[in-house]
Write a structure and sequence with these properties.
The radius of gyration is 17 Å and the shape is globular. It folds into two domains: 7-17 and 91-203, Rossmann fold; 21-84, Putative phosphatase, domain 2 (DNA polymerase, domain 1, Orthogonal Bundle). It has 208 residues and is an alpha/beta fold. Strand 4 (106-111), helix 7 and strand 5 (140-143) form a beta-alpha-beta unit. It is 46% helix and 13% strand.
Length: 208
């Protein structure tokens, strides 16, 4: 790992939590929103998704908006099921890595997410690993819908550094989106970009 690091900022989806955007895409198409691929993608999102990720749109407003664009009637339960379809699992080794790293580093979680997904990924963690929420693994958790900022805004990185007293050159940021990595680099933060197929257990924190 990069030398001189005292603090590590982790992304969630695609880094700690396995996700598959295509599963949500397929679920919405099956439910009647046939143009969902045009509405949402990992790199380019419509205004609705941006606002939901920053807490500017409520859960009910988000559900209603998706119901409105559907070509066939779709229930709230169908919307929630499809939206959460992308959430897969937490590999146990990744959670063990967090526990080990916390003995030596300050750990922060920085995730673009929303209240529906927060409820789902915490329920998954409790169900599969007996942990109530991700806060048990981190010194501080920053979820975009709670702080009103989202990556790749430079301001969210500024906030994390300032509130925690981190020096950027002593901070490592791990993420699987290139635009987020680029913003962190602008702040002088050390970065590791997890390309498709890479994992923290196989490519970053390998067992000796």
């Amino acid at each position: 790992m990069i030398q001189g690091i005292k603090h590590i900022i982790f992304d969630l989806g695609g880094v700690l939590l396995n996700i598959d955007y295509k599963l949500t895409e397929h679920a919405f198409i099956e439910a009647g929103i046939t143009n969902f691929p045009e509405l949402y993608s990992q790199l380019q999102q419509t205004d609705l998704f941006d606002k939901f990720e920053m807490g500017q749109v409520s859960r009910q407003e988000f559900v209603s908006a998706l119901q409105h664009v559907s070509s066939t009637p779709i229930t709230e339960a169908q919307v929630l099921h499809a939206w959460n379809a992308m959430i897969l699992d937490y590999p146990l080794r990744r959670l063990q890595i967090l526990q080990q790293l916390r003995l030596y580093y300050d750990l922060v979680l920085l995730s673009n997410t929303n209240e529906i997904h927060e409820e789902a990924f915490n329920a998954l963690l409790l169900r599969n690993h007996g942990m109530p929420n991700l806060g048990v693994f981190f010194d501080k958790v920053y979820l975009s819908h709670r702080v009103g900022l989202r990556k790749p805004m430079v301001s969210i990185f500024e906030r994390v550094l300032q509130e925690n007293g981190f020096k950027p050159e002593e901070t490592l940021f791990i993420d699987d989106s290139p635009q987020h990595i680029a913003s962190a680099k602008l702040m002088g933060i050390q970065t590791i970009f997890l390309k498709k197929g890479m994992t923290i257990e196989d490519d970053v924190f390998k067992a000796k």
